[in-house]
């Protein structure tokens, strides 16, 4: 019996030990499973943290990229404004108050024009005295068309590998570029050429189609870097125009009440009207920055000449060309339409609105006899042309301008009053332009 009891006890002990061992194994397995789950959760948390950090890094990188782009755009705008200030600061006041300065600068311009025509016509005998006899009609109908034909001829020779033609074209374009930079001092000249072409537009054939601008774009043979620069300028303009449209709608929302409470002859002094005028100035600055970025900082002088020659007699539509380029880039290039809020439909305010707001001026078809691409750029450079109310300055007709000498046109003698004088009286807050 003792042996039997001992055997039973041994079996019981063994069973107990096995059960205990199994329990330990289960505990170990459970512990390992918990560890695995904990590790999985830890890895998931770490993964989420990494994803979150990655998202934050991408956001910060994006913010940094946008800030750097904004910094670059601001620096570009500062460069542009420095040029505008240099060319336009008090120039009308100075020119028509100081006849000596005006005559001296006019002599220089006419001398340059004579040199330019000598290059166009491959001669050397024309002098400033000859230039003094030239009329506006001669410039528009003879001199500039000959320049376009000369450019076309030189470009054709360059395609054939004529190195001498390349040097001749470079000399011609450099002289014209410097001449037009200085002629910007006489903004009234650009206004006269614009008035001439605006009248011709009434009987002109339809403007070039988008497909035609596409062919002209191909002729420019842009580099990828140039294309990127043009698309960047387009995007920046659309962003600025959205801000302008928002500010304009805010000004228009309160302008009605102010006009009701103010005598009509004092409307121009209403804060909301002045705010609207400043808003027109912001639009002009944004559009001019776009044109400057494309024409002066992206295209070469030769590409600008190709553009003038291919588009003549139309003013090259830089916006349409950039839009064609944008469409070619496809879905990877984010699209955006110009904001509708740029339009101003307030009949009572017509006497206070400019002849053209800047973006409408940029995108409207325009003939360019006499100036080419520089016509729109020259008008937009001036702080007044796309801001000052149109009723302040009647547009001169072709008949008035036709027989005027270039000297008289540069001096604005087709006008009874200069922009600067009118602005000092009616828009004193705006004389501090450009912004």
TrEMBL record:
BZIP domain: residues covered: 25-83
Biased composition (Basic and acidic residues): 22-36
GO molecular function: DNA-binding transcription factor activity
Region annotated Disordered, chain positions: 16-56
Origin: domain of life: Eukaryota
Name assigned to this protein: BZIP domain-containing protein
The species this protein was found in: [Myrmecia] bisecta
Record lineage: Eukaryota, Viridiplantae, Chlorophyta, core chlorophytes, Trebouxiophyceae
